[in-house]
């Protein structure tokens, strides 16, 4: 089978296709024939080994796991011992490792069965980005609230806007001009082109929740957008070359003022949450935005596109 791997950290050009034996599932695992894989900015961080701190956990000199790809949707083609919940032929979605491959071995517990009629490319947009959006919005009753999503045009942002709007929030979204119409169509009541309107021009003392996905706005400027009792959920941002967003997250602990505080978002992908997102997709409440579908034979081009940082919605690799 074909798998896309890299032997050293670097740009998308370091990720090339290899022919390897098709793996067999172990106990508790299944083998999935891949139909769709969405690319996440996390794939880019692992690919580049950036920020440098990433290398402490994922391999100092070269990536310990050489294949890229986290999300996947596909069909179960073999089942390991001890797996009762899945059978050969089931259509599934979930998160794994080295998913940019024709076949992937995944823990059965990491997968969710797809209802008939759900496009695997749509489903593959949900695990990592959707779980992140859910955690960013967690802990609040959003009905009648005002939510500002800073950096709403990408994979996490387009899902965050839809989930917040579906839960009854009035959503404001900052994004590139190209994404404004899309986000309005997804339920944003107000869209703001970040290149012409800085966050400091948005209303003060106005929002119950600010979801900061772009991670470039100074913390006090985000805090000033909140009403008393409001929270800034810190989701993204590249930060410095060595420690990435860590220094900003540390500063946020000391940046609370007058009942306005910050909450770092660290999302892990849970199949129960993915199942809820799939249900919303099936009911037409959630519509993933797919800017580009790229064949698996050209997976490095998909990584290169997301590496540029200007994706509207998602880039999905399809078999
Ligand atoms: N905390 C967690 O657990 C967690 C989990 C997943 C992701 N993340 C982080 O979340 C961030 C977003 O991830 P993603 O996969 O959604 O990225 P993405 O899809 O690559 O997002 C790209 C989008 O961001 C927009 N953008 C860039 N700078 C902006 C700014 N200053 N203001 C408004 N929009 C801006 C771009 O618009 P233009 O093209 O117009 O520039 C583009 O539409 C990343 O930093 C990622 O590391 C965190």
UniProtKB/TrEMBL annotation:
Gene3D superfamilies: Medium-chain alcohol dehydrogenases, catalytic domain, NAD(P)-binding Rossmann-like Domain. One of its GO terms (molecular function) is oxidoreductase activity. Pfam families: ADH_N, ADH_zinc_N_2. Residues 10-317 form the Enoyl reductase (ER) domain. This is Enoyl reductase (ER) domain-containing protein.
């Amino acid at each position: 089978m074909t798998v896309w791997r890299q032997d050293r950290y670097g740009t998308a050009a370091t990720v090339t296709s290899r022919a390897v034996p098709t793996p067999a599932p172990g106990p508790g695992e299944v083998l999935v024939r891949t139909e769709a894989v969405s690319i996440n900015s996390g794939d880019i961080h692992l690919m580049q080994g950036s920020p440098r701190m990433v290398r402490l956990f994922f391999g100092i000199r070269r990536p310990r796991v050489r294949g890229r790809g986290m999300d996947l949707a596909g069909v179960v083609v073999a089942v390991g011992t001890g797996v009762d919940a899945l059978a050969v032929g089931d259509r599934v979605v979930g998160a794994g490792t080295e998913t940019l491959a024709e076949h992937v071995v995944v823990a059965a517990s990491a997968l969710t069965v797809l209802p008939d009629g759900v496009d695997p490319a749509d489903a593959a947009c949900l695990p990592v980005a959707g779980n992140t959006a859910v955690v960013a919005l967690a802990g609040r009753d959003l009905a009648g609230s005002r939510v500002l999503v800073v950096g709403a045009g990408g994979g996490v942002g387009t899902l965050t806007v839809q989930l917040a709007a579906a839960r009854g929030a009035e959503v404001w979204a900052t994004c590139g001009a190209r994404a404004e119409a899309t986000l309005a169509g997804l339920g944003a009541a107000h869209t703001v082109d970040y290149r012409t309107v800085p966050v400091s021009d948005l209303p003060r003392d106005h929002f119950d929740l600010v979801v900061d996905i772009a991670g470039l706005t100074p913390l006090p400027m985000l805090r000033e957008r909140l009403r008393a009792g409001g929270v800034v959920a810190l989701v993204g941002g590249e930060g410095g070359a060595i420690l990435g967003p860590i220094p900003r997250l540390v500063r946020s602990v000391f940046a609370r003022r007058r009942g306005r505080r910050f909450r770092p978002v660290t999302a892990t992908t849970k199949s129960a949450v993915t199942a809820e997102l799939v249900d919303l997709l099936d009911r037409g409440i959630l519509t993933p935005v797919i800017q580009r579908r790229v064949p698996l034979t050209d997976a490095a081009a998909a990584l290169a596109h997301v590496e540029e940082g200007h994706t509207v919605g998602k880039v999905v690799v399809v078999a």
